Batch of 2 targets.
Target 1
Amino acid sequence: MQYNDKVVEHFMNPRNIGEIVNADGVGTIGSEDCGDMIQVWIKVDKDHLADIKYKVFGCPAAIAACSMMTELAKGKHLDDAYDLTDEQVAEALGGLPEHKYHCSNLAASALHEAITNYAVKSSTNKAIKITVLVDDNGTGDLQLEHGLSFWVEYGGKRVLFDTGQSDVVVKNAEMLDIDLAVTDAIVISHGHYDHTGGLAAVLDIASKAKLYLHPSAIKPKFSKRDYGTESIGMPNSALKAIGNRKVIWTEMPTEVLPRFFVTSRIPRVTDFESGEGYFFSDKNCRQADKFPDDQAIFFDSPKGVVVLLGCAHSGAANTLHYIAKLSGKPRIYAVIGGMHLLRACPERIERTIDALKQYGVQKIGAAHCTGSKPIEKFKNAFSEQCFTCSAGMQIEL
Ligand SMILES: [Zn+2]
Ligand SMILES: [Zn+2]
């Protein structure tokens, strides 16, 4: 067994070993392959890791990795500690023998679990609130436009989901006393202009926000209209603003915050949600846009799983089926967002209602491109459980 001196030194003198009584967060992780088991306890003070302790059942590599993990994470801001990876721990140890990388190198993953445990516990005390910043509907002083943007307050963090089609998102945020500068993450549902047009204006302000989008969101997109072809993809201003900025490309389902995910591409499994026939990925309108970029958000709330939709171009039912699978939960509490049923046939609307019923959805916020006739049918099916979103509306969960 070839362990380097640093690994041996940490194994002989492990730092911070032990247990914290009344810990703020606990994480446990085990490896089925080799039977290693790690438990991590954390104490949090003002969003920083005031203390970390662990118990580990495993080989010298597992013990050294835990010891190094505590050295790297102790005192750090929770966000930075949450970003720490098992690879970084191994690197800080000067490397581990090849076959130890995957089984014994789980200390950062265990810490990740402990921080998630803390975040979920503390978020149940903090209200989850969704504010509609941009929508096609609304009353009062806020500006309206064809587009969608939600401001989501979750576990003390703030996520902007889509940006509408212009700087209306910024103006409406100001009117609502929402400071976009404190945005922690921006998630883009898909590349259409009515979801990405405000991105440049937002990124100007939200300089610290992490940006999540699917690689296909930046590809050209077209719509075939009676009068010709229209380019409806991400505007140049947004492409330029993304430019050299660090982007988290959501090629896989991705955890944005603890227990707060974006789906990435949504598999098409239903037989009634095929394309509408007027969205294309080439300007000659030969290649139907399959919307690999279309993604939805889902997160845990005290009442159950909440789903946020951009336009649901992959189909609302497909989206719910996928989220039920990803979350492992058979029920969904709320579905809020655009469902793009404007031109849908009655059968599609009925079967979308069936899917919402299948998951026992209790709160349906129909926004943006859902269409007034489908909303009427939803209201008939779900009565007061269904409402129409409008700019400025606040939904507490
Ligand atoms: Zn769209
Ligand atoms: Zn849209």
Target 2
Amino acid sequence: MDNDASSLEKLIGFDTISRRYESLYAFVARLIRSNLLSDGEARRFIPKSWVIKIFAPDDEASPDPGPDFRKYVDSRFSALTKLDIEPWAPFPTLTSVSQRCLRGCQTCLELGHHSYAYQGDLIARCPIHDEPLTHRCPHCQTPLWWRHSTISESAFRCPRGCDLLGGLHMGLEATTLNDLAFFFRRHLALIRRIRSTLRFASSPIYVAYPPRLIDLPIEEQGLPSLGLLPAIVDALRPYGPELPTFEKHHGQSHGAWRIKVTPFPLTNDAPASATESLNLLQAFKRGAFRTELPAPSPLAPALLRKLKDYVMLIEGNPVPRISVASYLVTTGEVAALQRLLAKDNDQGQTQMHYELLLHDILGRGLKRQEERQRPESRPRALGVAESVSAVMRLASGLFRVQGYTATDIVRARDSWKDFAESVDYL
Ligand SMILES: [Zn+2]
Ligand SMILES: [Zn+2]
């Protein structure tokens, strides 16, 4: 530790470290506010790794606060619930809330309380104050970025400087802590139940299309729209009756998501070597006019017939590829296919998932193209705004989960018309 531990322990509010389920952010922010620490003092009195982890997570790859911190955390509780966001996010890639912004209940924040449980989107309202959780400043609506101007300013302040603590008090007293702890304990049990029931055989792949991408604020880019996780859990419930039911304060809206669940054809772990995956990854090539995609198995004849004007087969070594007109696939789709293969999942299932996705993506691109050419028709494919696909393992077997959101057709048509992207990134 690069500071004097005894001076750390002398800080006002240090004894509040034992608050259950509260975030490291809330604890350190309280130390800074209570002791009126300047930036320099904050770094001097509080271990640098804690400060970086909370207020400047991009500086270093979110360092573990280390044994020094664990030493201070009351051993009666799991240190992890205070140290990390991770235990609270069953499937981070399905969450629609940015981890880059502080999210919480306005009244809790005024009391100087924040829990990482609020960071995901599983909880929609504060269980005690029944207020909707928000990642925006209640005074000026600015997103509450973790990282802004200075450390001391970031402690319970919005980036524009509004005070998130009520009045002058330093947030050392929160009368509702026991009630909150009671809820969080149950919430953690629910998350563990979801995690033990649902596992990914092949990671979820999310693609946003122009109707969704247009006008999207920075903090929401790359994130699914609200309701994806409840929609998936509810859709899988008939196949996994052991899945827990949500409580009143959980987000239960499915938003715009429509989910389809189908048994996955490949139930046993078909072997696929790491070399094979690497070969597939290296076969991607994105260009201005042509894009090459690995196609380990031949495309379905029906799809191939429809695609005949756009696709060329390349019997390459070490893997066969298809070369498609670049406008048929988006950069987001190519990147998603690559990400899928790069993930450390069950290889055989991931490869099959990849092939199914490739068919979906080509089919969607084809429909888009047909509809662009026939403006009088009723466009449907143009209206897909987001799509998600995953292979999930339940006790009852493997299931493919496919989801999409639709958007209004006119808006979709306009956004596709203006859609342009850089294609030479590979
Ligand atoms: Zn609250
Ligand atoms: Zn503000």
